[in-house]
Design a protein that fits this description.
The chain is 32% helix and 25% strand. It contains 14 helices and 18 strands. The relative contact order is 0.08. One of its GO terms (molecular function) is nuclear retinoic acid receptor binding.
C-alpha cells in the first residue's frame, strides 16, 4: 500500500528552499529589516538601537552601522572600532542585500569574538589599543625586504618571510599571518590570527611602536627593536595570542621551546598526548583513529605506481614521539613573533612530510604487490623510511632529518651507491617538495637505473603498478616530469650536477634551485 500523506517525509532541500524564500519575501520593508537585525543582535549578545533609517548593533569596542532604504533594502554597512571612524564593509553589505541572514549572523559573531576582549571597560580599551599597536608593527615588518626570500613567490613569502605573509587587519577582519604552506600541495595554509587575552601573571605590554624608526633589519635579517625603556607600556594581567588555524600537532621538545622563546609557562592541564601519526591521521581524515593500530596507507605515485606506507604504532608510542594539538600561542613582545613562527614552521614541515605518506582513508591491513615503506621515528625531529632494494633482498634506510625549519638532510644506508652527492640531491628534492612519496619515487627509480638486470622473480615482486583494493582509496601524488637522459660529456670534462642527476631531477627546477 502507498504511504499516507501524514507518513511521508517532506523533501528536505525543498523545505530549506521554501524557508529561504519565506525569509526573503518576509523582509521586504524597512520595519521588517529592523526587526530581523534586532533579533540577530540579541542572538549575538549585542546592543541595538535605531535612529530614523539607521540601525546600530553595538558592543563595547565596536559598532555596526546599517543604513536602510524605505523599501527595506540596505544602502551601506559600516564598521567602527573603538575610537575610530566608521569604515564601509562590503562583506556585511552583500550578505544583507542577498538576505543571507544566517551567514550575516555568523560573520557578526566572528566580529564580536574578535573584539570581545575580557576585563572591565577601562582594561578593554587599554588592551585593544595595545593590540592595535602590535598589529601595525607586524604590518611594517611584513613590508621589509628580505634577501633570503623570493618576493615574487607567494609560497616563499609564506614559508620564509620574517613574519610570513600578513593579511592586514581591517575593521571587519582580524590581522592574519600566513606562515606555512606545503610547497607541493599548497593546501591547507597554516594561519595565525592576532588576539589578546587575560592571564594570571602581570606582563608589560607595549602601548606604542617597539620598532626602530624607520623600520629596518639587522645583520642577521631580523627587525631592529627599541630598547624596553624607550617604549611606553602598561603592566596588565594579559598577553598577546596567536590563534592557530588549523591546530598544530607538536612533539614535546618543540612544544617546550615555545615557553623558552616567550619566557611564559606553557599550560599543561587538559593536554592530551597521542602518537604523532595518529594525530595527523585524525586531522587529515577528520575521523578518530585507534591508537593501538598500525597506520597503513596506500598512495598513488607517477606512472601508475603505488606505495604502501606502514606506521607501526609501537614505534611511535615513546614519549618523545607523541604530540599534542596546539591551537593558540601566548607571547608578550613583538620580538617573539619571528622566532615563534619559525618554530611552528619547523613542526609543520615535519607534519607535512609524514602526512604526504598518508592516504585520505585508513587501512588496517597490508596488501601484496606494492612497494612497501616502513616509517619509523629516529628522533624528535627525524624519521626513517625502510624499503627493499630493487636489485637484492637487502634493505635500504633513508634517514630524513629536520633540525630546523630551513634545514633538511637525507642520508641513505644500504644502497651501496658510489656517488655520495646523491644524498644532497635527494635532500634538495625533499626540501623543495616536502613530499615523501615524490622523493622516494625518484630515489627508487634512480636505484633501478643503477642496478644490474633483475631476475624475473624480482621483477614480479615489484610490478610497476598494482590495483588498489576497494577498501583503500589512494591519494594521488603527482610527480614533476623527469628530464631525459643527457648526452655524455667530452672526456676530461665532468658533467655539471644538473646534468649528472637529470634522470630524477624535476623538470621545472635546476639542481641549484632545488638546493
Amino acid at each position: 500500500m502507498d504511504k499516507s500523506r501524514k507518513e511521508s517525509k517532506p523533501c528536505e532541500p525543498l523545505v530549506r528552499s521554501m524557508q529561504r524564500l519565506q525569509e526573503v519575501f518576509n523582509v521586504s520593508t524597512m520595519n521588517a529589516m529592523k526587526t530581523r537585525l534586532e533579533s540577530i543582535a540579541k542572538q549575538q549578545g549585542l546592543g541595538f538601537h535605531v535612529t530614523d533609517g539607521t540601525c546600530y548593533l553595538t558592543a563595547d569596542l565596536f559598532y555596526l552601522e546599517v543604513v536602510l532604504l524605505a523599501c527595506g533594502d540596505v544602502q551601506v554597512v559600516k564598521v567602527a572600532p573603538h575610537g575610530g571612524a566608521p569604515v564601509p564593509s562590503d562583506t556585511f553589505l552583500q550578505l544583507l542585500r542577498n538576505k543571507d541572514f544566517a551567514m550575516f549572523s555568523k560573520k557578526l559573531g566572528d566580529l564580536y569574538s574578535q573584539y570581545n576582549i575580557p576585563g572591565d571597560a577601562e582594561l578593554k580599551v587599554k588592551l585593544f589599543e595595545s593590540l592595535q599597536v602590535l598589529g601595525k608593527d607586524l604590518e611594517q615588518i611584513s613590508c621589509l625586504p628580505s634577501a633570503s626570500v623570493n618576493q615574487s613567490s607567494q609560497v616563499d613569502n609564506i614559508n620564509y618571510g620574517i613574519v610570513g605573509a600578513v593579511t592586514f587587519g581591517k575593521e571587519d577582519c582580524p590581522l592574519t599571518v600566513h606562515f606555512y604552506v606545503s610547497p607541493e600541495s599548497e593546501e591547507p595554509v597554516h594561519t595565525a590570527q592576532l588576539n589578546i587575552g587575560l592571564c594570571d601573571v602581570t606582563h608589560c605590554l607595549q602601548m606604542a611602536s617597539s620598532l626602530s624608526q624607520p623600520p629596518q633589519l639587522d645583520a642577521h635579517g631580523f627587525p631592529k627593536f627599541k630598547s624596553p625603556n624607550e617604549v611606553p607600556s602598561d603592566q596588565v594581567s594579559a598577553c598577546f595570542l596567536l590563534k592557530l588555524q588549523p591546530a598544530i600537532a607538536m612533539v614535546p621538545s618543540l612544544w617546550h621551546k615555545l615557553s623558552q622563546i616567550t619566557d611564559m609557562p606553557v599550560p599543561v592541564n587538559d593536554l592530551q598526548w597521542a602518537p604523532l601519526p595518529t594525530l595527523l591521521r585524525a586531522a587529515s581524515s577528520r575521523e578518530r583513529t585507534a591508537e593501538d593500530r598500525d597506520i597503513i596507507s596506500t598512495v598513488s605515485v607517477a606512472e601508475g605506481g603505488k606505495h604502501t606506507y606502514v606506521f607501526p604504532v609501537e614505534a611511535w608510542e615513546g614519549r618523545a614521539h607523541k604530540a599534542t594539538l596546539v591551537d593558540s600561542v601566548p607571547f608578550t613582545h613583538l620580538s617573539h613573533v619571528p622566532a615563534l613562527l619559525d618554530l611552528l614552521r619547523h613542526q609543520c614541515a615535519i607534519n607535512a612530510m609524514l602526512m604526504s605518506a598518508m592516504s585520505s582513508t585508513c587501512s588496517t591491513a597490508s596488501f601484496p604487490h606494492e612497494l612497501h615503506f616502513e616509517v619509523l621515528p629516529e628522533s624528535d625531529t627525524s624519521f626513517t623510511l625502510t624499503f627493499r632494494r630493487p636489485d637484492t633482498d637487502g634493505l635500504c634506510v633513508l634517514v630524513v632529518d629536520l633540525p630546523g625549519s630551513r634545514q633538511l638532510t637525507c642520508r641513505l644506508f644500504g644502497a651501496e651507491l658510489d656517488n655520495p652527492s646523491l644524498e644532497e640531491c635527494f635532500s634538495a628534492v625533499m626540501k623543495r617538495t616536502h613530499s615523501v612519496p615524490m622523493t622516494l619515487q625518484a630515489l627508487y627509480s634512480k636505484m633501478m637505473d643503477l642496478a644490474p638486470p633483475a631476475d624475473v622473480s624480482m621483477t614480479d615482486t615489484f610490478p610497476p603498478s598494482a590495483a588498489v583494493p576497494d577498501q583503500c582509496e589512494p591519494t594521488s601524488v603527482s610527480q614533476p616530469q623527469l628530464l631525459s637522459e643527457p648526452q655524455p660529456s667530452p672526456p676530461g670534462d665532468p658533467p655539471p650536477p644538473s646534468a649528472a642527476f637529470s634522470p630524477w631531477t624535476p623538470n621545472n627546477y635546476t639542481l641549484s634551485e632545488l638546493i
